[in-house]
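Chain A, query sequence.
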Amino acid sequence: MLGMADYYSTLGVSKDANETDIKKAYRKKAQEHHPDKNPGNKEAEKQFKEVQEAYEVLSDPQKRAGFDRYGAAGAGFAGGGQDFGGGGGGQGGAPGFNPNDFGNFADIFESFFGGNGFGGSQQGGSRKKGPERGRDIETEITIKFEEAVFGTVKHLEVTKPMVCAHCSGKGNEPGTKVSTCSQCNGQGQVRVTRQSLLGSISSVQVCSKCEGRGEIPEKVCSVCKGQTRVKQAEEVEVAIPKGIEGGTTIRVKGRGAAGTFGGEYGDLFLHIHVSPHPKFSREGRTIFSVETLPLLQAVLGASVKIDTIHGKVALKVPAGTQPGAEFTLKGKGAPSLKSDAMGDHLVTIQVKVPEKMTRKEKELYEQLATEAGLEVNKGFGIF
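Chain A, predicted structure.
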């Protein structure tokens, strides 16, 4: 992220700029700072990355709204068995949100008001602490430009809570017994009655002896210390779909943290970043590049080989091609997440004027100038 950067200033547009304005500004800035036009210029490379990041946010309505409201921190990502997308939250909330963390509303009500909500002695409201779903976890990965276009498979090492292999997630040392808690009689909760000015008030609390489990192991697991999980690294294989773009989040179901006491695993949210390409830039299914031609090729026309993500392609440049002319290579762009059909590759032509010439070349140019009716002053140029 660019931290506190103003993406509007980066692209040189106003805050009320529409989609077309933003797209035009991006293409202009991307061409201006493209590494091909500024070889070895680290500052230009940095600005090129900033321009790409600014466009990534401002071209997405959800990210732009988040940036307008909260700044760069608000232009976050989200996604949703392996899902992918941008904006919004997985499972109806942001990554890492687990509705189970809030427990059951009836339990909250009971903890304040007792079993029937009015200080009664009802015993049926106690609940033993059961399996709980593991938390969702997040991580990031940076892939190459080509990998984003054609898709790839990545193997990640993710450190997270996993089911203790020693006790199989039970919490007790293998071969030892588990007995019912004598304090809560296996309920996991105990009712406490207090005297007040209004009379007796009962509340339900987690059993302090078994910590809400209802059972007490004869001997806790020597590895996880009774917590049923241990933190360790796991290799996760993730399929990156073709056509994915930077800023997208993939959700890999069941590859988050392990649940407790038999609870299901949470999900893994993988935020995708794409490395800038030294020659190409991309906007959805369209790929852009800049090709510099010698002056004579632009004047007389030529057939040139153009680099594309699919390999070299012949492009016929007509005579009299002007600097800034744009040519379309059909079907040589990228696919999208929704379609396998390839987009186009747009080539912008730049013309290189010779800085140094041999004596013969200079004489020929002077002859051309004379032929065009211009006055040539030997050694001083054209008047």
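Helices lie at 7-11, 19-33, 42-58, 61-70, 105-113, 145-150, 295-300, 359-371. The radius of gyration is 33 Å.
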